[in-house]
Design brief:
alpha/beta, single chain
């Protein structure tokens, strides 16, 4: 069976490429674009299921503010009516004022408790939903997204950015609503008490509004930079800790310290800029508020002396103004939280707006039943071409057929396209042109669940999750019994070392399987693949990081797990090729040789040269 390869012109850059537009700031270049309106859509979708509870929460706050704002009215009534009546031996009005004030205080406290409780539940449900969405969406996004968007930024989205939103929902939002309600209530009451005093108070909102609008505009830019700076710090920290071995091996500590210091100072500067904007707002708002209060007090006192204004009304107006302007600083803190949360929500919306480049089919098809006695399936690369979205062709147009049950080894120099071929078969990517068929069915027509049941990839890293050995083996078949798990390990040759572990199959392998050796991790990965029972198995350099004894153990396991299946084995070590029925030699994305190992060794091509060099190295 031979492969056909044709050349194709290099692809033009895709105008719809959704990568982040270039930025003058090197730390901003991998930020995700946020579609217009995406932030609002996300916020509405989070709050929509909670409409009823949001309405109850708003009602509680309306009633609480009504109870709070009744106080100065009672004070005005007491000064102008109840006290003169008391001096005339009528105690009723003053007692009524005292009782009313007490009831308002109790009602305000009870309603405040109800509001805080209800709003806390709403905010926690919103955050629970948001974290779940980020986690589920990140898992659903295609491999190419994760290859260009670092895990540190995903961590920043689900931790730092969600925390900013939590602060807004639990603290800042309450302040904003209370300030707005206070402003509405007090404006109406002041206008009702005295039109002149009310008009001056309402007019004072104009400079305050201009201050708020200016602050929001300036602070929005600052907080977007701050969010990016925080993410850069997290990315550097996560990257360094994940690569701590090469960091120590190559004495990278000093260089990493210097790079981290630059990021840390940038974070410090953006925090300082945010505080400076906050200080400007607070100073401006206090000047406006204090000036207004002074004008109203002086004018009101003059009118009281002139008997054109009652003293109780002036006292109530001063109390209302104090209640109106005292929260100005707290409003600044809310705006602080709001800008931080708005920048964070924008970045989260940008992440959630990303669509998988390998989508689920709209009309999925089912594969035919596997043929009796033959667990493998036929694979066909039908006129396939592949280029990454960043441009540059990796695999020129070619055709290739892998019969069911055949083991094919793919060899070639680094960058030849071997792993890309395997990733197309695993549908980590879709071909730019052409189709990849499994028993005649396009992989794009299979659901992710069906595809993962039929095609499994084992990488050289053999990633293990924190948990027991048994749990790691059963990942491909969570419903497998302990007997089936142990049987798979026995067939692979992993049972003896697993049984010798402190808790046997219940031993926790810890982070990344660090409790066991690389060879043992690879055997566990093969047991996992055997238990999953796929039709097509892809081994991506499964022995490249192992020593000779480990390689031999894994090769014995490979012979077991590959039996009868269609297999693609990506290999650097030619010792792995010996188990293959067929060898493909790739260079620059093209298949330049195709034949059995014996045929190619006997020839004069690239594989014969590689095999001869390998034999000489063994000697």
């Amino acid at each position: 069976m031979t492969a056909t390869t044709t050349t194709a012109p290099a692809p033009a850059r895709d105008e719809d490429d959704d990568r982040t537009p270039p930025s003058d700031d090197p730390f901003d270049r991998d930020q995700l674009p946020t579609p217009p309106g995406a932030t609002g859509v996300l916020l509405r979708s989070l709050l929509s299921p909670l409409r009823g509870r949001v309405a109850v929460t708003a009602l509680l706050l309306l009633l609480q503010q009504a109870a709070v704002q009744a106080g100065p009215l009672l004070v005005a009534y007491a000064i102008d009516r109840a006290v003169p009546a008391f001096r005339g031996d009528d105690n009723g009005p003053l007692i009524a004022v005292a009782v009313g004030y007490l009831l308002c205080a109790v009602a305000a406290g009870a309603l405040q408790y109800g509001f805080v409780t209800a709003s806390a539940r709403v905010s926690q449900d919103v955050l629970l939903d948001l974290r779940g969405r980020i986690f589920r969406h990140a898992q659903a996004l295609s491999v190419d997204f994760h290859e260009r968007y670092t895990s540190g930024r995903l961590i920043s989205r689900s931790t730092t950015d969600v925390e900013s939103l939590r602060e807004l929902l639990e603290e800042g939002l309450q302040e904003l609503v209370m300030v707005i309600l206070s402003a509405v209530y007090i404006s109406v009451l002041l206008l009702w008490l005295d039109l002149g005093l009310g008009a001056v108070a309402v007019a004072s909102f104009v400079p305050l509004y201009l201050l708020v609008r200016s602050y929001r505009r300036r602070a929005g830019r600052v907080y977007r930079k701050r969010s990016t700076a925080i993410a850069a710090v997290i990315v550097k920290f996560v990257e360094t800790m994940n690569g701590i071995r090469p960091v120590r091996a190559f004495r990278r500590e000093a260089a990493n310290d210097a790079e981290f210091a630059v990021l840390n100072r940038r974070h410090e500067r953006t925090n300082g800029d945010a505080l400076l904007e906050m200080a400007r707002y607070v100073v401006g708002s206090r000047i406006a508020a204090n000036t207004t209060v002074a004008l109203i007090v002086l004018w009101g006192a003059y009118r009281v002396a002139d008997d054109s204004l009652e003293l109780g009304v002036l006292a109530a107006a001063v109390l209302y103004l104090r209640r109106l302007y005292d929260p100005i600083d707290r409003l600044g803190m809310f705006l602080n939280s709001y800008q931080s949360a708005a920048a964070s929500l924008e970045k989260i919306a940008g992440l959630l707006a990303q669509t998988p480049s390998v989508p689920e089919p709209t009309a999925p098809r089912e594969l035919p039943e596997r043929r009796p006695g033959l667990p493998g399936r036929e694979v066909v690369f039908d006129d396939v071409r592949f280029a990454y979205r960043t441009g540059g062709e990796v695999l020129p147009r070619f055709g290739l057929t892998l019969p069911a049950g055949q083991t094919v080894a793919v060899v070639g120099s680094t960058g030849a396209g071997k792993s890309t071929l395997a990733k197309l078969l695993a549908r980590f990517y879709d071909p730019t042109d052409g189709r990849v068929l499994l028993d005649g069915t396009d992989l794009r027509d299979l659901t992710g669940r069906d595809l993962r049941r039929e095609v499994v990839m084992v990488t050289q890293e053999a990633f293990l999750f924190s948990g027991t050995v048994a749990e790691n083996i059963s990942i491909g078949r969570p419903d497998a019994t302990r007997q089936e798990i142990e049987q798979a390990a026995k067939e692979i040759g992993a049972h003896d070392f697993i049984a010798a572990l402190p808790d046997g199959y219940d031993t926790d392998v810890r982070k990344r399987g660090g409790r066991i050796s690389a060879g043992q991790r690879q055997l566990v990965a093969f047991a996992r693949a055997l238990l999953a029972d796929p039709a097509v198995l892809i081994l991506d350099e499964a022995t490249s990081s192992l020593d000779i004894p480990g390689e031999r153990a894994v090769q014995r396991a490979m012979a077991t797990v590959l039996k009868g299946r269609t297999a693609v084995v990506i290999a650097h070590r030619l010792s792995t090729v010996e188990i293959a029925d067929r060898v493909l030699v790739m260079e620059h994305g093209r298949i330049v040789e195709d034949g059995s190992p014996a045929e190619l060794i006997a020839g004069t091509g690239r594989f014969a040269d590689l095999h001869r060099a390998w034999r000489d190295s063994l000697a």
